[in-house]
Structures are given as C-alpha cells and as structure tokens.
Amino acid sequence: MKTTLFISLLAVLCFATGHAQENNCVNCMKADNGYINLFIGPGIALGDFGSKDIGNNSSGFAEKGYNVELNGGYHLTKSLDLSAKCIYSLFNYDVSGMLSSYSVKYPGTTWKSLGREWELIGGLAGFSYLQPLGKNFIANVKVLGGVMQSTAPELTLKSSDGASFTESKRSASSFAYLFSVGGTYPIGNLIDLAGNIEYISTAPTFNNVTQSFNPSVDSPVTTTSNIKQNIGMLAFDIGVRLKF
Questions:
Q1: pTM over 0.85
Q2: What kind of fold does domain 2-243 have according to CATH?
Q3: 187 torsion bin: left (phi>0), alpha (psi -120 to 50), beta (else)
Q4: Separation in Å, CA 213 to CA 20, 62, 79
C-alpha cells in the first residue's frame, strides 16, 4: 500500500514536470513570500487501524473520521517550499464486533459500550514541490515528517447481567510521515482555494495497557501488555490559502 501510494505521487510529479514547458502560469505565480492554509475534510482509516478483527491485537477499530489542518509554507524558490503542518484528527471507535462477540460467548446477555474515539495530534515539517499547470492552477507534492500523539480513552463494555470489560487509556508519541498531492487556484489577490489528498502513517507503541474482565460470578481476570498500533489514514482536505 505504501509503495503504491509513493509511486502514484511520483507519477503525478513526473506528469507535472512534463507539462511545465507547455504551460505558463501567469496569474498564479505572483510574487509572495509564503502562505498559511486552513484545511478540513474526511479521513479514512487504513490497514490495521481500520480493522475490526477482534482476534487481531493490532486492530484499531477506527471507523469514519475527520481531519483539521493548519499548514504554513515559505518559498525557497519558485518551485520549492519549506512547509510545516499541524494536524488534528478524530476517528470513531467501532466496538460493535466486540459487543456481538461477548453476546455470543455469554448467551442471554446484552452488552453496551460507553463509547471511545481515536484522537491524533501531530506536527510535521518538510518540503513541497510546486508546479504550474495551466494559467491559474498550481499543483504540489509534499513530503513531511514529524511527531504524532495518538490517544484513545478508557474503553468500558457492560453486560445486562452485571459483567464488564475495561481497557485502560492508550496514549503514546511516535514518528509520523506524510505524502500528499494537491493544488491551489486563485480566487482573490491574496487568497487561493486549496485541496489535498494525503496519506499519513505512524506506529505508536502503547505501554502497560491493562485489560480487565469482571464476570458476574467468577473472579476478575486482568492482563497487562504493550501494544503496537499501526495507524494509517487517507485524508481528503479542502480549504483556503492566505498569501503574504
């Protein structure tokens, strides 16, 4: 998956470079030193992060989510920017499979969850390559790296017969990287409409995660382990770019 995305990004970059000589972007390459972008859009959980397999300890149970980003850039040359990005992502945590599994394992019981969400907060920096395509549109390819804080609050499942399952809060920081393709189109002298498709990946290890099952009749069973979570997501962002 990662290799395919990377090759796709390179293909877009090569396509943009191949058409550079034919397209003279007159209106979109006006002199400006840098910019600030504000983006928002939906996110899709990929791989283990989106898996609902209760038999896989690396399943993230992430469902639909959304992404909010604040991005800034400074022009090093006409075609290369120094870029930095702050990211906030929130994904629903789908426990329906767990609830069904416990209902089957303990016939006659109904299980409910108090809810849980994945919260991802990151800061990344790197470079963005710019290429005019036509008179007004500028395509860009970004490669960024940084740190991501991944958090999921305590999870509690409760049964109609008084039994319960609890998993402690998960929280850890880890290296993250981002590949994206996007573009901008001017809608004013100092403002552009902007959009991106981004692939973001990180792999935190959550230490000392405690899982406790408290049956209605037997003694509680508690385990503690370290869990590595592969987090991958695809974000579709749209927003505005303010130039200065």
A1: no
A2: Porin (2.40.160)
A3: alpha
A4: 62, 22, 57
